[in-house]
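Example S7 (structure tokens).
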């Protein structure tokens, strides 16, 4: 069994819900340049594979009443600043394939790759919303977004190859700056994009830029199997992770790729404290104001089930599940919620506290760092995961315990590296 691959979210999940209101939250600094850099330096000291910024291109002002929500600085530009504050750690940015022109994206990512000397990774998302900011009447259906994503990624990769670093000669004697024959147009003429190329920036000479994908529907998995080095997933339980991992590996092999070239990295939500009861208190305190009506509205938007007048203790059986709405924003999250209801027939009271409703359906551990290390070891031994992305919750301290105690506990168990052996992002994923 290889070592785990671990990333750290720089989106401040440890400040969500009530946590930003804690006196030591540092919320005032959220949009300061040093905020993310401090965590990135800590993550690098723990020898993590990468730091990660998710992204959305829209804002619901109502959400701001109670917390920062998804408002954030541009992830690629933020990581350019972090590149100067770190030396080895990978920098995973999120760019959607639904809204921006591929030439611009290819150039921005290659720019960050050069700035960071080969440490960039691209989290390819087809987006959850934001059409209203890009002149579209509605979000294109998922199948259409994935078809566009496949073409988009092909164009970006071709652009990266269109101007290899080896073309540059810098030959002062002959006056030849570059071997222009190595710099070729891509002449892409596809369904969605027409791009001539070449890119106006030479590619970094080292390892290629790894691709990460998020979205686990049938179409999402097939897309990941074709292009992804890693998949960022929501897997609230071990069986869900193991099933997704097997499914992705099988699909990758069917497409002629080695199964181990696609790594399953679920989000791991960690509420850590010095003992279990403090950790439970931290979780409770974080969710004390959880808005019941908003959670019920979220369930309806996700799976079309209206629980407005549902009695608190009455079990919700699978027979009540309506067909999925045609345009559900994420089939992945909708199916996780349906799966929970089918498996557990929960009461409404119970359902409203579950990660599938409260958060993103991520794997969740509430306890000490040792509890977390034990559970991670179990998931790893069960071949359910190749690593995970830390999305700590509850408090700054919970985030610090993740890096200062959980990661060393995994090193002690020989599940994680004690030092870097590679210098590129792909190198970390491969060691
Ligand atoms: C774990 C996970 C993380 C995601 N992160 C983002 C994100 O940061 N930004 C974004 O616009 N979409 C994000 N998405 C949305 C996906 O890119 C995709 O558009 C959506 O899940 C619909 O695809 P699906 O039907 O395969 O789930 C994420 C999805 C999942 C499952």
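Recovered sequence:
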């Amino acid at each position: 069994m290889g070592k785990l691959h671990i990333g750290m979210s720089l989106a401040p999940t440890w400040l969500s819900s009530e946590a930003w209101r804690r006196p030591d939250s540092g919320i005032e600094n959220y949009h300061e340049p040093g905020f993310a850099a401090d965590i990135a330096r800590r993550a690098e000291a723990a020898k993590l594979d990468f730091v990660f910024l998710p992204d959305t291109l829209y804002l619901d002002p109502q959400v701001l009443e109670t917390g920062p929500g998804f408002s954030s600085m541009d992830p690629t530009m933020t990581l350019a600043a972090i590149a100067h504050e770190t030396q080895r750690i990978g920098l995973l940015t999120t760019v959607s394939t639904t809204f921006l022109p591929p030439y611009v994206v290819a150039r921005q990512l290659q720019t960050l790759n050069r700035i960071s000397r080969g440490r960039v990774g691209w989290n390819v998302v087809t987006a959850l919303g934001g059409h209203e900011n890009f002149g579209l009447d509605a979000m294109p259906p998922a199948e259409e977004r994935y078809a566009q994503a496949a073409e988009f990624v092909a164009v970006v990769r071709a652009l990266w190859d269109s101007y290899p670093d080896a073309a540059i000669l810098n030959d002062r004697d002959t006056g030849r700056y570059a071997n222009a024959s190595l710099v070729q147009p891509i002449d892409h003429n596809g369904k969605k994009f027409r791009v001539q190329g070449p890119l106006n920036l030479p590619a970094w000479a080292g390892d290629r830029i790894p691709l990460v994908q998020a979205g686990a529907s049938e179409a999402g998995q097939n897309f990941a199997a074709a292009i992804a080095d890693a998949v960022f997933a929501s897997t609230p339980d071990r069986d869900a992770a193991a099933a997704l991992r097997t499914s992705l590996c099988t699909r990758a092999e069917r497409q002629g790729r080695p199964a181990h070239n696609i790594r399953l990295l679920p989000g791991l939500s960690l509420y850590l404290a010095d003992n279990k009861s403090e950790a439970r208190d931290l979780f409770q305190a974080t969710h004390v104001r959880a808005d019941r009506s908003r959670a019920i509205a979220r369930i309806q938007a996700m799976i079309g089930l209206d629980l407005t007048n549902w009695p608190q203790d009455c079990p919700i059986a699978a027979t009540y599940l309506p067909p999925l709405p045609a345009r559900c924003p994420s089939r992945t999250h909708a199916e996780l919620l349906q799966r929970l209801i089918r498996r557990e027939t929960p009461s409404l009271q119970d359902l409203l506290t579950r990660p599938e409703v409260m958060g993103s359906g991520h794997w969740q551990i509430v306890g000490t760092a040792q509890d977390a290390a034990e559970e991670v070891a179990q998931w790893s031994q069960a071949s359910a995961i190749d690593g995970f992305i830390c999305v700590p919750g509850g408090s700054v301290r919970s985030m610090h315990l993740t890096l200062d105690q959980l990661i060393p506990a995994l090193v002690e168990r020989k599940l994680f590296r004690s030092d870097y052996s590679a210098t590129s992002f792909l190198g970390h994923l491969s060691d």
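Notes on this example. The two ends are 12 Å apart (CA to CA).
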